[in-house]
Design brief:
Family: Belongs to the class-II aminoacyl-tRNA synthetase family. HisZ subfamily.
Number of strands: 15
CATH topology of the largest domain: BirA Bifunctional Protein, domain 2
Shape: elongated
Strand content: 15-25%
Binding site for L-histidine: 81-83, 111, 125, 129, 274-275
CATH architecture of the largest domain: 2-Layer Sandwich
CATH class of the largest domain: Alpha Beta
Function: Required for the first step of histidine biosynthesis. May allow the feedback regulation of ATP phosphoribosyltransferase activity by histidine.
Helix content: 25-40%
CATH superfamily of the largest domain: Bira Bifunctional Protein, Domain 2
Distance between the termini: 47 Å
GO molecular function: catalytic activity, acting on a protein; glycosyltransferase activity; histidine-tRNA ligase activity
Main location: cytoplasm
Radius of gyration: 26 Å
Strand order of the largest sheet: 1-5-6-12-11-10-7-9-8
Length: 391
């Protein structure tokens, strides 16, 4: 073994130590239970997928994929997200099912990092996909479930920013004339580089009216009044249809009783190129990144030979835990120290306590070199040493 790499991990990979593992398990469990209450069924997909199917269908950039070859020479990838693998499953299952699928998952995904910068290359997502429903009601359900799941996890306060990628695309195409110029401007939005966005708009050969429309677009943030302002910027039916969907969405979220949790931000776009409609991001505390995001992706299943509506969301557990702040203290653990002649008694005592849901460590006292360290490590220490009936 090379001493250089004896204690190192591959770039972007992390260890999860016991305290963090327990906290993650607790949060995951509370969210999973809530998703099940909403009728979503959990599934698992393989960590390895074919590059030509899931790898190419995913919206993750090619240079971020972990690739390897199997024994037959096929290129495989470690799954870079969960939406594409679930779309693969749903595309075949939907030929038999006549109702929307409600699927959930909790799994690690893998995205290679060019430089560390504190960004993990492996992280866990928990999320849902509603496949086969193209209604705004399904979009509203995703947002309401995301809110309910985060509340069950104990997160407060948090806010959802809601936009519509269809509106952004249509507005930019109207003004800029082609998709290439629209993508160039959209990149500034994805990077949230609003200074660069303004400078780029000023550099474009546009009329003063069109330049002003693009600059006014950046102010489309707030409550339902934003929809009226946005209507003044678009000229045709597609853009207005997108805004009509947002208006209906607001009414749906009001019916769920959660309108105070959301704000419209029509400047939201995503690096996930398969999004086609309503999308949203979740922010909390002092975390500078979204802890969750989701939206509608009606075109993705076409890559697997099926045309249908779909929407969903994913929460990043590492960012959620960071948003929750200080971890809950672990449940107390009792250590039963025993000598050989009292081993059976110790085993019986441990079994009884575990039946009462206590956390118990059994430890032969001959292996303990420092009793003070043992006392520091556990909430309680029981000594069963010497003949039975003596301590």
């Amino acid at each position: 073994m090379s001493r250089l790499f004896m204690f190192e991990k591959p770039l972007g990979m992390r260890d999860t130590l016991p305290e963090l593992h327990d906290a993650k398990e607790s949060v995951r469990s509370s969210i999973e239970m809530e998703m099940k209450r909403w009728g979503f069924q959990f599934i698992e997909t393989p960590a390895l997928e074919y590059y030509e199917t899931v790898g190419m269908a995913s919206a993750i950039q090619d240079q971020q994929l972990f690739k390897l070859l199997d024994q037959q020479g096929h290129t495989l990838v470690l799954r870079p997200d969960m939406t594409a693998p679930i779309a693969r499953i749903a595309a075949s299952k939907l030929y038999k099912e006549q109702i929307p699928l409600r699927l959930a998952y909790s799994a690690n995904v893998y995205r290679a990092q060019q430089r560390e910068g504190g960004r993990p290359a492996e992280f866990e997502q928990i999320g849902v996909e509603c496949i086969g429903d193209d209604s705004v009601s399904a979009d509203g359900e995703m947002i309401a479930l995301a809110i309910s799941s985060l509340k069950k996890a104990g997160l407060e306060p948090f806010q959802l920013s809601v936009g519509h990628v269809g509106f952004v695309n249509e507005l930019f195409l109207q003004i800029l004339g082609n998709e290439e110029r629209a993508r160039e401007l959209t990149k500034f939005l994805y990077e949230k580089n609003y200074v660069g966005y303004r400078e780029h708009v000023h550099s474009l050969p546009l009329s003063s009216i069109d330049s002003q429309r693009l600059l006014a677009f950046l102010d489309l943030r707030g409550g339902p009044e934003v929809i009226g302002k946005a209507l003044e910027l678009v000229e045709n039916g597609k853009g207005r249809d997108a805004l009509d969907e947002l208006k209906i969405l607001w009414e749906i979220i009001e019916d769920f009783g959660e309108s105070s949790r959301i704000k419209f931000d029509l400047t939201i776009v995503s690096h996930m190129s398969y999004y086609t409609g309503i999308l949203f991001e979740v922010y909390a505390g002092m975390i500078g990144f979204a802890i969750g995001n989701g939206g509608r992706y009606d075109k993705l299943l076409e890559k697997f030979g099926k045309t249908t509506g779909a929407t969903g969301f994913a929460i990043r557990l590492d960012r959620l835990l960071e948003s929750l702040g200080d971890l809950e203290p672990p449940e107390p653990v009792t250590c039963i120290l025993f000598s050989p002649e009292r081993r059976k008694e110790a085993y019986q005592m441990a079994a009884e306590k575990r039946e009462n849901h206590e956390r118990i460590v059994l430890q032969d006292i001959r292996a303990v070199r420092n009793l003070d360290a043992c006392s520091d490590a556990f909430a309680n220490v029981v000594f069963l040493v010497g003949k039975e009936g003596t301590q």
